[in-house]
Design brief:
This protein is α/β, with parallel strands linked by helices and 129 residues long. It has one domain: Rossmann fold (3-Layer(aba) Sandwich), CATH 3.40.50. It has a five-stranded parallel β-sheet, sandwiched between helices. The protein has a two-stranded antiparallel ribbon with strand order 4-5. Helix 1 packs across helix 4 and helix 2 runs parallel beside helix 3. The protein is globular. Pfam families: Response_reg (PF00072). Keywords: Phosphoprotein. This is Response regulator.
Length: 129
């Protein structure tokens, strides 16, 4: 898809399940995005955020092999980067400070993901490179 709201947008993907990460990456590339990652841990996500130009938005799996992605959400929120949370457990695991973040229940349709990201990016200037 070209000419869409996501063309050229940089999207960070934090997902610990390799198959899901590949599916998300494929959907985002098909929508014209530049994918940052995917990464599977909080440490890797924070390291990427500290070393790369900021993303336009992010997709966070809430539960990452024994840890949650809340610390990544905290960094993104502090930097004004919108994010969507993907989880098989619903919004219950989100702390109150992130209760307004969109939540996609796994399994979700890739079109739902790209539509949600397009809404998050709408009206926002692309992130500086």
């Amino acid at each position: 898809m070209s000419g869409g709201l996501l063309d050229g947008r940089r999207i960070l993907v934090v997902e610990d399940e390799a198959l899901v990460a590949m599916l998300v990456e494929d959907a985002l590339v098909d929508a014209g995005c530049e994918v940052i990652g995917p990464v599977a841990t909080v440490a890797d996500a924070v390291a990427l955020l500290d070393s790369e130009a900021p993303p336009d938005a992010a997709v966070l799996d809430l539960n990452l092999a024994g840890e949650t992605s809340v610390p990544v959400a905290d960094v993104l929120a502090a930097r004004g980067v919108p994010f969507v949370v993907a989880t098989g457990y619903g919004a219950a695991g989100l702390p109150p400070e992130h209760k307004d973040a969109p939540v996609l229940a796994k399994p979700y349709d890739p079109a739902e993901l790209t539509a949600t990201l397009a809404r998050l990016c709408a009206g926002r200037q692309p992130a500086a490179r």
